[in-house]
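This part of the workshop introduces the protein records we will be handling. To make this concrete, we reproduce a full record directly below.
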Amino acid sequence: MPRSILFVHAHPDDEAIGTGATMAMYAAAGVRVTLVTCTLGEEGEIHVPALEGLAAAEADQLGGYRIGELAAACAALGVTDHRFLGRAGRYRDSGMMGLPTNDHPRSFWQADLDEAAGLLLDVIRETRPQVAVTYDPNGFYGHPDHIQAHRVTMRACELAEKEGLAPAKIYWTAVPKSTLQAGIEEFAGTANNPFAEVKSASELPFGTPDELITACVDGREFAEQKVAAVRAHASQIPENYWMLSVAGNFGAEFMGMEFFQLAAGERGPGGGPNRWESDLFAGLAQPAPVPSAR
C-alpha cells in the first residue's frame, strides 16, 4: 500500500499557488496524491478579455472553463487523482466575504457541514491518507470558501476517526511571519508587487507566527512545475501576476519552499535551527503492504 496524502482546496488555482511544489514532489516520489477541490471558482475575476462573457453576471460558464485549467495544472504537477467535492458543481464559489454571493443556495459557505464532510469522508475511505492538508481556521486569509474547506476537512477527519480511518497527521498551510517580513523588504520595488505599501508583516491579514510553523517542504526542484501549474490558470492569473513577477526575480527559492503548521498528530523529527520537519510524513511508519490473495 503506497503512502497517501490528501489536499483539500477551495477553488481551482489554490492548489498550485499554495501547495504546488509539495504536491509535485510527492507525486514524483510515487506517493498517492489526492486533490479535492470544493468549488469550480465560478465567481473568479477574469483576466482574459476574450473570456469575459463567461463571468457569473454574463453566461455564468466560468466554472466549467476552469475545470480544464485545473486539469492542466494537475498535469503540470504530475497529480493524477483529482476530484471535486461531491461532484463538479455540487458547491458553488461563494465569492469574497460579505458579498451577496455568500447567500447563494448552492454556495459552499451555505453547505451543510456534516453533509459536505460526509462527501469528503468517502474520499478518505477510498484513499486512506496518512496525511491531510488544508487551511487554518481563518482559511489563510479569510475567504469564506477557504474557511469552509477547513471546517469540512476537520469534521471529515473527526468522522474518519470514529471509523479508525483518520489521517495520522493534519497540516494547515502557512507562511511564517518572518518570511513575509523578509519578502516585504526583499521584494520592495519589484514589478507588480501588491504589497508595495506594506512596511510590516503585522499589517497583513495572514501569516503564521514562526513558533507555530512545524514543517518546511523544500520543493525547489519542482519550482518550474509549480510555475507551469500557476500559469495553467490563465483566466485568473495574468502574465504580470505578482507571484510570477517575484518568481522571475527570485526563482526556485521563492516558489519551491512551502510551509505548514501541524494541527493534529505527532510531530516528527526535524532539522535546522527551528527543527522543522522537511517531510509531512515525518515520524510515520511506512503503510503495511496489502496481503495478496491466496
About this structure: The chain has one domain: 4-174+222-264. The longest strand covers residues 257-264.
